[in-house]
Amino acid sequence: MTAATIPTVVVPTLAGRFRAFLGRLFRRPAAAAAATYLLLLVVVALLAPWIAPHGPYEQDLNAINQAPNAAHWLGTDDLGRDVLSRLMYGARISLASSVLSVGAALVVALPVGLVSGYVGGRLDNVLMRIVDGLQSIPPLVLALAIAGLLGPSLRNIVIALAVIFIPAFVRLIRGQVLAVKEETYVEASRSVGASSGYIVRKRVLHNIASPLIVQASITLGFGLLAEAGLSFLGLGIQPPEPSWGVMLSRAYDYIFEAHWLVFPPGVAIMLTVLAFNLLGDGLRDTLRGG
Amino acid sequence: MGRFVLRRLVGLVPLLLVLSVAVFLLVYLIPGDPAVTLAGGEAATPERVAEVREQLGFDEPVVVQYGDWLADAVRLDFGESLYTGRAVGDELRARLPVTASVVLGSVVFALLVGIPLGVLGGMRPASKTDSAVTALASLGIAMPSFWLAMILIIVFGLELDWLPVRGYVSFAESPWEWFRHLILPSIALGTLMGATLARQLRGALADVLEADYVRTARAKGLGPVRVVGKHAFKNAAMPAVTILGLQIAYLFGGTVIIEEIFALPGVGTYLVNAIVGQDVPIIQGGIMMLAVFVVLANLIVDLTYGFLNPKVRVS
Amino acid sequence: MYKRTLTVLLVLAAVAAACGGDDDDDGGGAPAEGEDGSEQAADFDPDGVLRYGVSLTGQGVSGQLAPFASTSVCDVLVMAPIYDTLTHANPVTGELEPGLAESWEIVDDQTVELTLRQGVTFHDGSPFDAEAVMAGLERNAAQDAAQTAASLAVIESVEAVDDTSVRINLSTPAAGSIPAILSGREGMIVAPSAMETADTEPVGAGPFRLAEHQPGQQLTYEKNEDYWNADEVHLGGIEVVESEAGPPTTNALLAGEIDMAQVSPDVLGGLEGDPNIEIAEQPAKSYYKLNWNLTQPPFDNLQFRQAINHAIDREAVLQAVFEGMGNVAWGPFPEDFYGYNPDVEGVFDYDPDEARRLLEESGVEDPSFTAFVPPTPLFIRFGEVIQAQLAEVGINVEYVQSTDIVQDYFTDRGQPATVILWPPRPDPVDTLRVQFTPGNFNNVGDYSNEELTGVVDQILVTDDAGEREPLFQEGSQIVVDEALDLPVAYAPLLHAARSNVGGEVVQNENCQGVDFTKLQINAE
């Protein structure tokens, strides 16, 4: 068996391709801004214990519900806690729940989607029916029910959110597998004796990567919104932990007296979700070959 | 067409079955024992607890419990609330118009805002208008609906005092008040859908306007408006409609928070309180009802899509 | 495209149009001319309907309408207008006054005799006589009654001595507390003719009858013209409407959608400045505190408990959480209680250094614990302040929100401690008895203190304030010295009312609303 029948191609190094990709991505202003913002956010979240001006639980009962001032750049909440510091620490919690839930969803969705698509037949049918069923339940309601019934905690929120993310990921992955199955070079690879495992690894995973990354980015944004919603209704992160959703919930209680309090956490959530969405858009356009 | 409808309807059955199993099983997530609470908690004697357990069927095997529940559920009997003992089905039926009104209002708002914006942006791709539309739409998609609700309450309720910020007035009682009370909730809930619609429409429209057949039409001398109206719009609408269908589930979910904030006595608030209190029959009945509505709404979208686009019917 | 949306719109519109009616009538009939013999100076509207906002869902009012089915003490708000009670506990003075029972006598340690008012009838016309009261009490004390059975468990039998006299025989010496107990749900008598359907169609002998009930949304009451004291009742009707605590209620009050509601100190900021709204304040007997399992480590350690008590700056909590309203709680009873012991004040004044010293002396290796907290904003803030203050001295508290403290803490004992608003019992001795003497539901660790139990037993056999006073003082001292719990604050009861509401605002304890018989709608 000679290699003469298959043309060899020079494959650039992984690092090289990555650098080229980044270059193309950053040429788009929206995506560049979004990526920069997110990077900054992650840095702030990681460094919060060192750079936050106050502790997130530090109460100053003489400085309740203050508007922004020199001592507290974004003001204080109803127990005199510094809003800016809580926003920074809140980034850790909100981002963590988002990232963990998307991660958990992928861990489950990948094998399920791959198997379902590749094996097909009855198994695929059954799995798709289950996915359909789950997707018919309004996502927020399902997450609420799961988090509420299991008992609110970070772990249970991650579980609840992961469950609502899994169906879409499974569909995406399965769809890619189905698409690949039909491509002719699967036949070609088979004809030279490659095993199905090899095909899966090389072709499918390669194809999945792009749409999956895009989807993940957008889902991260949605996860943030969902966590905020759950915490707002009291079924997510529990006070005194300063997730952005908890901060919004508390701000709502004082909406009649101190309505500026709703802006810091709300703007933070909106900007971050926007960033995830813009990044997702940019990734999609770049990967498509812009 | 008839075969298409039939096939779709039949396809619903396994879906609904799976749904019912998922909803029923949700309940097993709860740690603890609802029988004790219902038996009176404080004064409950072990005999009383056992009695309650038997009464509610908690001692039966899971499959039997599911069967019983399902048999009742198809007749819209979801049992009684664990706390108040009142029929869940009746309560759901009473609250449905409220939730339906909010969802309806949101769809209307989304269409009223999304379509014009999307068309505006799509017809002048890469112009300032287009950028503005895209930016606005992106913001709308990123904004948490309940945060938007709070801002609306602050601006229109507290500062300007133009619109009511809470409560629901039934249509039968006063159509005008029904409408006024629904304005802010509809804006809050419908913004995401409107923004998504605008984006989709804009994108699809911009693409279509470059397509060959449109250029041909223009070459023939048809003005831009007629081109848009006759050809481009109809084809651009398809993907937009698909998006709308996907968003239905979101709407029915989002109404939960919006109802809370605006104090609307709908299925959403009923469900949230039940989840907080772990009132099992309500949770099962409420989720089932919402999910069925999503399925029905999707069916309608599917059918109309098939009606509009014959190619789909064959698949 | 159009057809699809049109279909969706039509479907939804059809559903929306088929909706139930909502009773949205505002009160107010023709303005009244002057009236005769009324104590209140202002003119009132005899047809006036008071719209009272309260949360009818969630963990407050349970929606049950029969006392023996009631699972929440908040139900008194909706049931008292229908049933009235055999005795009345004056919310301000704590003294017992006649209700549907004109007088009573402690015959001996185990026997109480009630003399009923004459000529009283239930809403359906059936006589409110000894036979009816006997049946009612037996029903409330029955095995399958939800919560009323607990306090009435000491009843061995009830007899109708004659038409207006009822004799209650107890199985243990506790006659002194029976009259007080009968001022609560336990003393609400359901008409025997309506016993079966009382939970949905309640029939009582109270000042109002229930005209309509939309569960979770509204209860509509009409004045009972045949009430024995109908002349003194100035409201023509009541509408108890669903209104969630916090911003929704504030909103409803400001908009005039409701006339009156109970509020907490933290929402006052949103209400002040509106000239149409007045706040009525009344000292409360419920105190915010931390309850703990006295036989479970680390709470079985006296110094640890004392350390916690010294670590709390009660004044600061009062300021921050309750807007400075109310009083610091040093012990289990409020200042104006006849059995109050002034010596308990300041036993555990704010002293973080002493707290740290005691903590070290206690030898507790891991000074941390998890406590339940009710999920309302006020409780959560209260909990957070406590948490911060304890952290200052090195004690670490974590919270788990619980919507059902009775189930999660008292029954399941899920955590060793809980934040709780402890309401006064109809008989104050129960505050000591059910929490700190063995064999009682609220004594989660089954803690036992012989001295305290002895004091409690002595209180139980008498209902004479003079005899009870020194005993209560002794009991309070023991509770505080042993640091059996962490009392923090007596927050006042607050009701907000719009200016169209007149009369006397007499607030019931905790979540039990107001005495509607003392209110009126002012004439235009």
Description:
- The complex is a heterotrimer of chains A (290), B (315) and C (524).
- Helices cover 73% and strands 0% of the residues of chain A.
- Chain A is mainly α and 290 residues long.
- The longest helix of chain A is centred in the middle third of the chain and has 37 residues, at 83-119.
- Chain C is an alpha+beta fold and 524 residues long.
- In chain C, β8 (208-214) and β9 (218-223) form a beta hairpin.
- In chain C, α8 (302-311) runs antiparallel to α10 (352-362).
- Chain C starts with a helix and ends with a strand.
- Mean pLDDT of chain C is 84; it is low at 1-41.
- Chains in contact: A-B, A-C, B-C.
- At the B-C interface, α5, α10, α11 and α12 of B face α1, α6 and α12 of C.
Structural class computed from helices and strand pairing of chain B: mainly alpha
Overall pLDDT confidence of chain A: 83
How many strands appear in the DSSP assignment of chain A?
0
Helix content of chain A: over 70%
Q: What coarse outline of chain B follows from CA principal-axis ratios?
A: globular
Main sheet overview of chain B: none
Element-level helix/strand string of chain B: HHHHHHHHHHHHH
